[in-house]
Amino acid sequence: MTGEPRSMQRRTIRSPPSSAEGQCVRIDSLLEDDEQRSLARDALEGLRRPRKQMPSKHFYDSRGSALFDQICELPEYYPTRAEREILSTHAVEIAKLTHAAELVELGAGTAAKTRALLRALDDQGALRRYVPIDVTSAVVEDCAVALSSEFPRLTVHGVICDFERHLRHLPASGSKPRLLALLGGTIGNFTPAGRVRLLREISAMLAPGDHLLLGTDLVKDPCVLEAAYNDSAGVTAEFNRNLLHVMNSALDGNFDPASFDHVAVFDEQEEWIEMRLRSKRKQTVSLGALELSVHFEEGEEMRTEISAKFTRRRVESELESAGLAIVRWFTDGEGMFALTLARPAT
Hints:
By secondary structure, the protein is of the alpha/beta class. The protein has 10 helices and 14 strands. The strands form 3 sheets. Strands 1-2-5-4-3-6-7-14-13 form a 9-stranded mixed sheet, sandwiched between helices. Strand 10 and strand 11 form a beta hairpin. The protein is globular, with a radius of gyration of 20 Å. The protein starts with 10 loop residues before the first strand and ends with a strand.
């Protein structure tokens, strides 16, 4: 063990012996009981604000992850299709530019889109290790097992953690060079100050020869944006309300999810989508684990997510502030989404 705080000590939950081909699957957890404490801290802070809010990372228990997978296949939700198109078209070029022996993916989920990149890196012969990082244990475990079957020569080291808090505790680089991926527009869930802070932490992890692959949703017609977060099947609404299920389960809450409407609107000044939950009536909710009562007026809203949209100039500026320089800028055919390959600035 290192000198990490107790709540951040690594707990290996799966570490089978290497196979005859040298393959190994290892899964570590950095959460332990810290996950519930994080939710409790965020609830105590966010629900007592004049304008209530909760971080979107708390959507993602097993149910929330499954709902998000459904969202990614909805006709209105273009980001996944657009990013998948970019990766399918440019994965080989990215592999040749990076020569990555290790791929670290923050917020990996099921690694559905990443497979094209893994195949391209594997075909090049340099790839040795994949490190999927996600906050949901079942997602990391399932992803690691599936990929170890698909890529027999690959070592998979899954990490269950909140990368916003645990980035400096990630495994040391096993092979060089390293490609760190933050896909899906996840960077847009942070405020501008939070984005720069996270990008600076990522930049500090990258050695000369390493790269960052960053996914960003692009500014476009607000009608297209709002439709992507207000699907006709109501899956995004259920995903939004899943935050209430999470708080009920983890914090002994009595939220009635049916008493909250899903709201998603584009803020033209900030250039981001805001998802909110709007109380249908005057109500008081208790969170027994926190000994906290939270009052909602009829029509009062709680912000549950921001999803910032970008221009190339904004991406370049924020990367530059973090000490990173653009190597390549890739977009899908319709210019809906972008992947930026960046490296430490010299």
